[in-house]
Amino acid sequence: MELTSTLSRDLVLQVSSTLNEPDWLRAKRLLAWETFTKLPYPTPRTEEWKYTDITEVPFEELALELPVGQSLTREALPAEVKLRLEQAQLSGFAVFVGADLVYAELPEELSKQGVVLTSLHEALRTHPEQVEANLFKAVNWNDLVGAQASRRENSKIPALNAALFTHGVFLYIPKNVEFSKPIGVFKYLEGQVSGVAGRGSDALGKLSSSRTLIVGDVNSQGVYIEEYISPAKVPASVNTSSTELILAQGAKLRHAHIQTLGEGFYHFHRQRAHLDRDAALNDLVVDMGGSIVRAEVQSEMLGAGSYSEMLGLYFTSGTQHVDHYTLQHHVADHAYSDVLYKGAAKDGSRTVYAGLIKLEPGAQKTDAYQTNRNLLLSPEARSDSVPQLEIAANDVKCSHGSSTAPVDPMELFYLMSRGLPQHVGQQILVKAHLTDVLTRIPIEPLREHIEHIIEEKVRL
């Protein structure tokens, strides 16, 4: 079927029909589309976006990337993905090229225990009740429809994702099942592919839109790593992604979202976790690629005794612009959350961090902490940091802080005076700056991979 050539309600219907979706999902897509059409794109006049200008991002000029039904052997996977598979030491993995799940492996011992790793649309067929009960549950539907959405301009892009996502991941970890060796998902975005809808031209790339849904049942435990990879340079392209983490009572999840997309990609990511009683999330966000990046990472402590650790690493260069927003939303009592986001900027790049600790009246005995630290490697680089507190409970411990500072020239001079080239000295200083985040990553192959990315970016 040839799809309509512009973003429209007809395109939403045609995508849903092409993917053979159930009526309930088609209806939710249409509600999200209505929200998208009613809301303006965020601008620097939008409070949550005051440091990030996306007016030049060509959302509606791009072709929508669609599945084309391709599958690949492990040997035929993109070279960048194969290299990561050799390094990552995973228990199971799945690979997307464009909007297609082209290859997947899951150990028999996990599948026998009921662990499910598949595409979101395959899960609609094999686990329809789980998907219907949880899809859009964490990336809150109230953000996308109804009166609340009309007051929240920053829901424009998540609404676009909900209306037009074409692929995604579903991971289910059953009750009492545990695994400590990571499952990995690699999303390889080429920027220019076949199987698209839109006005695409040689000067423009594609609009890619995906979702991830992870459900951890009672007392389950797992580790999940998701990586976005592309060629080093692509035509102007947009990637929107949403991740929903649903953790039942006592469930524990270690989660990582890593993007090293090439120059030309605009990456917009919203992630939200629902944590039930005594559930625990250890989250890591790493943003090293892309031209403009906006990542919103949120934890909802809905059950007493829930725990959220949110770590972030970013390193920008050239003209990159990376914007992070975190939310620690405490609803229940006796919960704990800790945010530590650290980054470095060089050349004329810019980083932005805004974080909010929000405590509801019932969130007594809360422990919540928020820290942001930034290192500037050139006079032209810039970092903005806005930590915030909103506390409606009176028996809590909360703190927040931020700092931004240039590289100490005397420290760099000392290292160079001992015979180290300037870029090696900067590598040492950047890694030292980021070390308290790196040392909190217990997955050694992942930590080594991030350190290698940092070394390459300093050298450029």
UniProtKB/TrEMBL annotation:
Residues 206-432 form the SUF system FeS cluster assembly SufBD core domain. GO terms for biological process: iron-sulfur cluster assembly. Signal peptide: none annotated. It comes from the Bacteria. InterPro entries: Fe-S_cluster_assembly_SufBD, SUF_FeS_clus_asmbl_SufBD_core, SUF_FeS_clus_asmbl_SufBD_sf, SUF_FeS_clus_asmbl_SufD, SufBD_N. Residues 22-184 form the SUF system FeS cluster assembly SufBD N-terminal domain. Belongs to the iron-sulfur cluster assembly SufBD family. NCBIfam families: sufD (TIGR01981). This is FeS cluster assembly protein SufB. It comes from Meiothermus granaticius NBRC 107808. The gene is sufB_2.
